[in-house]
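Dock NAP; give full complex structure.
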Amino acid sequence: MTQKTILVTGSNKGIGFEIIKQLSGLGHQVILTSRDEDKGQKAVQQLRNEKLEVFFTPLDITNELSLDKCFHNIKNEFGKLDVLINNAAIVLKEDRSLLKNANEVTLQTLHNNAFAQLSVVRKFLPLIPRSGRIIMTSSQGGSMSDPVGGWSPAYCISKSLLNAMTRHLAHELSHQEITVNAYCPGWVRTDMGGRSAPRTLEQGADTPVWLVNSEKVPTGKFFYDRKEIPW
Ligand code: NAP
C-alpha cells in the first residue's frame, strides 16, 4: 500500500477521530485537526498512547486566518496533501423548522457545513497532486430522492448543498484527475448522532477509509457502506 498524506477536518472526536485512528494504523501520514487546540492535543495523546503517530495542526474551517495557518503548516511539513477528508460539521439544537428557525440558525449551519467545506477545498487544492482525492462527509438526510425525515432541516439542506458541490467539484477537477466523492456514515453513536444511534464508529469510518485505500475510485458519486447510492 502506498503511504498517503491525509488531512481530516474536525478530527478531535467522533467519526473524524476514528478515521484518523484507522488510517494511522494502516501506516498513512495523517493530520489530525481541531478548532480547539486543547481538544486536539488530548486526541493526539490518546492516539500516541496506542502507539499511533499523527501530526496535529489547529483548524477552524470557518476562519480564514486559521485556514491560512493550517495550509502553511502542512505545506512546510509535507509539501503536499494526497487526500482531504471534509468531516467537520454541526447540528444546532435550535434547528427544528425551516419556517420557524431564526435566520442565523439556518445561515450558520449552511455556512459551516457547506460554504466552509468549499473554502477548505479551495485553500488546500494547490497542495493536492494529480490523482489526489477529496472526500466529503455527507448524510442521507440531504438526499433528494429519499423521503424527507423532518429532523434538523437546515442541517439536511446543508448536506444537499454539499452533495451538489461534490458533483460540480468532481466535474471541475476531472481534468486534474482529482476525484471528489461524498459518503454517508449512517446513524452513528457520536456526540452528534446521540446514544441511541445503531452504528459504531468503526462502521461510520469504514467507507471513507475504503475510499482512501481503494486502488481506483470513480468521481462525483455518493456512497454508503462502500456502495454507490442515489443523490
Ligand atoms: P461530532 O462527534 O459532533 O464531531 C464533529 C466534529 O466536527 C468535532 O470535532 C467538531 O469540533 C468539528 N467541527 C464542527 N465545526 C467545526 C469547524 N467550524 N471547524 C473545525 N471543526 C469543526 O460529529 P460526528 O457524528 O463525528 O460527525 C462527523 C461527520 O459525519 C459530520 O460531517 C456529520 O454531519 C456526518 N454524519 C454524522 C452522522 C451521525 O449519525 N453521527 C450521520 C450522518 C452524517 P468540536 O469538538 O470543537 O465541536
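Observed: Helices lie at 14-25, 37-49, 64-77, 103-124, 153-173, 201-213.
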